[in-house]
Amino acid sequence: MDTSNDYYAVLGVDSQASAGAIKAAFKKLALQYHPDVYKGTDAEERMRSLLKAYQTLSDPEARREYDALRRNGGRVDGAALRKERGPDRPGRFAFPDLQQTPTTSLSLSVDGIAYQLSSAQAESLKWDGFVRGRASTTAGGSYTCQRCHHSWKAAGGARPSLCPACHAGDWDEYLLLRCTHCRAVFSSKEIRDPLRGNNLYYPYDLFPLCPNCRRSQWCPAENMRVDALRAAAARRSALLWSAAIGVCVLLIALLALAVLR
User: What are the tens digits of pLDDT across the range 88-98?
Assistant: First the structure.
């Protein structure tokens, strides 16, 4: 098998790796080869390969299809996995018109889930590139888990604390993202990072490239955050160099005084 298409080799994990191990491996490599960090000419190509591997292996059905092809010794590429539940399945992206001013409330469907955004949320999606929220209850007391997309009805009217299928406690939290290049709106099944105190993920943590057009620097708010972090790091580096030079000058002066005595 062509190892460039072996998604397990791309992520550096065993074929029996758990979902958690796959996620951790992807995050480590995504941070290492993020175009804002890794300056090689193949930065975006590396990220495309990592993103394709992660999207396939993190989707249980797509992973089963991939494993079947892999066992048969066939060359695996994106087209072979582009099925109803593959990474590029229809309906995964929405392309709403957000050019009207002022922005009005917005209805859209992503990954088979309907979202109703207020005008303020639509503005955030338009200018910041992402919006967080909690899913509302549909008519008849129906619920849909944002993590596993399981739908169910709950009796009694009380909001469920856990999804009955995947047992996620944050089943109703959603994160919608919008690419500034291709205008695609997509959702994230990942909300909180268990490796970082269960804090909220930043959009670039799992989407260093837009899943639709595969381009970097797709999120305005994240671009500003990353630029601020890089500027702060540059300032710290400059201060350290200044301090080091000052210490060297002081040592040279002390040495010169000692020699003159």
Answer: 444 789 999 88
For residue 194, the 8-state DSSP code is G
Q: Taking a C-beta distance cutoff of 8 angstroms, is the pair 132, 146 a contact?
A: no
Backbone angles phi, psi at 109, to 5 degrees: -125, 125
Longest alpha-carbon distance in the chain: 93
Of 185, 144, 149, residue with least CA distance to 60: 149
Rounded CA-CA distance 230/16 in Å is: 37
Token pair, residue 138, equals 């549909």
State in words which class domain 3-81 has.
mainly alpha
Contact in structure between 115 and 174 (CB atoms under 8 Å): yes
- How is the chain split into domains, by residue range? 3-81, 106-216, 219-261
CA distances to 6, 78, 104, 198, 202 from 75, in Å = 9, 10, 47, 38, 34
Q: Distance between CA atoms of 193 and 118, rounded to whole angstroms? A: 27
Q: Are 9 and 83 in contact (CB under 8 A)?
A: no
- When pLDDT is averaged across residues 147-165 and rounded to a whole number, the result is 84
Bridge partners of 115?
A: 108
Structure tokens at 67: 């494993």
